[in-house]
Amino acid sequence: MASFGHESDVNFSIPYKTIQEANIHLIEEPPQEHDALIATLPLEPVYERPFSIVHPLRLYKDVWIAEKKLRGTLVMQHCFKSRPTDIFLTSFPKSGTTWLKAMTFSTLTRTNCSLDKHPLLTHNPHQCVPFMEVEFSTGRSKIIEVIPSPRVMSTHLPYFLLPDSIKESSCRIVYIWRDPKDVLVSAWYFTQKILGGPDKMVTFDQFFEFFCQGLTSFGPIWNHILGYWEESKRRPEKILFLKYENVLQEPVKYAKQLAHFIGCPYSETEENQHVVEQIVELCSFNTLKDFDVNKDGGRVMPSTDVRISKAYFFRKGEAGDWKSHMTREMAERLDTLIKEKFEGSGLQI
Ligand code: PAP
User: Fold this and answer.
1) Which residues are in the Sulfotransferase domain (predicted)?
2) Which of 183, 186, 287, 310 to mutate to test the pocket of ligand 1 (most atoms within 8 A of CB)?
3) Which residues are catalytic?
């Protein structure tokens, strides 16, 4: 493959994993200063189910968050200092985060990385861009501080829980959302893989019930989507609001929009050289899932104590898979619920 051949002043090409490995000495003990508060918060009512044993959710300001990630979240809210050049990739889990990380990383790195030696060939997108709440919950906040600008970081936190410094600085936020029915199906499979099979967790019908009650990691989903939507309407220059299904349909259009938004639009020369098409191809589901790095057996994640294989982030990568999993009644019920919640917002599934 040829190089992207782009020239710009953006100088960014280091996957987060490399920065982390070079700065192991900066890792501290996981924060515990908020444990007393966390212990007083409501624990999910279904805490006997296996998923909860490894990953108990607590209700914090009407959001269900895994205990461990809440530790990091609270520290982050107090300590995190945003830079004007920061880019935050935000999403509800299972809504297109992996694609967004790959696209943002490769868009910014096109100055420095040739396609045949691209970091995405050897790094999962989640190794290129860190999850803030995970890093803060595992004592890695000082590593976040040494990432060179422009930093790209991600979070599943709802808008209102972001540190003030992110909301107030001139940094950019990209949000991606997805049809909640497909989010639910994707989360169901992901959870199953983590637990080691369908017999190890609640049934799909029960999972559906929990989801409709908002009882899922970072749930309820409707508040999450609406929070970023409302803010993106108020400050479109601050938040780019993308939809997974649209991106799948017209990836080149949205790749250009993303590049423009994060401050490195494609030049005419690049457009003529089809650079954007090459990046879209590199970050496509079919390309990424076939890289060896994305097929590995995984490792135990310090943030959750569960084994997560990089392959778990690549399942089908389609819109509408819910049709193979939900009855018509279930789909209608969830659609109606979301429609009611979205009413008056101008947002539609
Ligand atoms: P995360 O929130 O845990 O990071 P996230 O990437 O948001 O996960 O969601 C995973 C979904 O994105 C999976 O959807 P599925 O279960 O319905 O298949 C996964 O297949 C899909 N996905 C991963 N990479 C891509 C990609 N490059 N393009 C499109 N979809 C992708």
Assistant:
1) 84-346
2) 186
3) 156
